[in-house]
Amino acid sequence: MEMLSGSHRQQEDAIMRSVVHLLRGLSALFWGLPLVLLAEAHTELYAKGRWTVLMAPWAANGLLLFGLGQLHRFQMQERIWRSALDRVMLLGIIHFGLTPFLFFWHAFPYQSFFGHSVHLLFISGMLYLHQLNYAIRRLAFMIPDPTLRQDTELFTGLNRRVLSFLMGLGMLYWSMGWLTAIPAPLYALLKMVDHLIPVAVVLLMVMPVSMTMTMVWKLKESIFAVLDERTSGSRVSD
Q: Which residue in 206, 212, 224 sits closest to 88, CA to CA?
C-alpha cells in the first residue's frame, strides 16, 4: 500500500509540475501578444535609428517563445497537441528571425528587399497567430470544461477566419509591389496605403490579438477552477 501511495503521489507531483508549466506558459502568451503588436507597429522607435530598439520586438517575441516552450512541457504524450505546438514554435522562430528587418527597412526605406522582408514579417505574424489559435483550441479539448470547449471552438474559429482574410489582403497588397506597370490611380492608392500601414496593422490586428488573449485568460481561469475542485475533493476524501 505504501508503494502504491508513493507512486500515486509521484504521479500527482508530475501532473502538478506540468500544470505549473502550462500556467506559466499561458501567462507569458497573455502578456507577450500585446507587447509584440506594440513593439512591431511602433514605427517611431525604428525611426530613431538606434540598434537598441531591436531589443523591444526581440524581447516581446522571446517572451512568446518562452511561453510556447513552457506549453511544450504539458501533456507531452499527446501527439496532436505536440504537433500543433511544433508548428507554432517553428513560425515563432521564423517571426523572431525576421524582426530585425523592421529596423533595416526604416533605415533604408528604398531597398525593396527590406520592404519585402517586412511584408513577409507581417504575413508570418498573422500565420503565427492563426496557428496559435489552433493550438489553443487543441488545449481546450484536453480540459474537462464543456463550456470552455464550446467558447474556444467558436472564438478561435472566428479568429482564424479573420486572420485568413487579413492574410489574403496582405498577400494581395504584397503582390501589387511586383507589378511592373501600375495604373496611376492604383499607384496613388498604394502610396497612400504605405503611409497608413502602421496604423492599419494595429487596427486590423487588435481584434484577433484581443480575442486570443481572452481565450488564454479563460483557459487559465478554467485550469484554476479544475485545480480548486481537485484540491477540495482530495481534502474531503482525506
A: 212
3-state secondary structure of 88: helix
Q: How far apart are CA 218 and CA 112, in angstroms?
A: 42
Q: What is the DSSP string of 22-57?
A: HHHHHHHHHHHHHHHHHHHH-HHHHHT--GGGGHHH
pTM score of the predicted model: 0.84
Is there a contact between 167 and 127 (Cβ–Cβ < 8 Å)?
yes
Q: What share of the chain is helix, strand, coil (3-state, %, to 5)?
A: 90, 0, 10
Residues 6+ apart with CB under 8 A from 73: 18, 21, 22, 25
pLDDT tens string 131-161: 999 999 999 988 888 888 899 999 999 999 9
- Cα–Cα dist 118/101, whole Å: 6
Q: How far apart are CA 190 and CA 119, in angstroms?
A: 14
CA 229 – CA 208 distance, rounded (Å): 32
Domain count, the chain: 1
Domain assignment of residue 7, given as a range = 2-237
136 within 8 A of 152, measured Cβ to Cβ: yes
The CA–CA distances, whole Å, from 158 to 32, 59, 92, 169 equal 21, 29, 22, 17
Residues 6+ apart with CB under 8 A from 138: 80, 81, 84
The residue with cell 501600375 is 182
Per residue in 45-77, pLDDT tens?
555 555 556 678 888 999 999 999 999 888 878
Residue 83 cell numbers, joined: 504537433
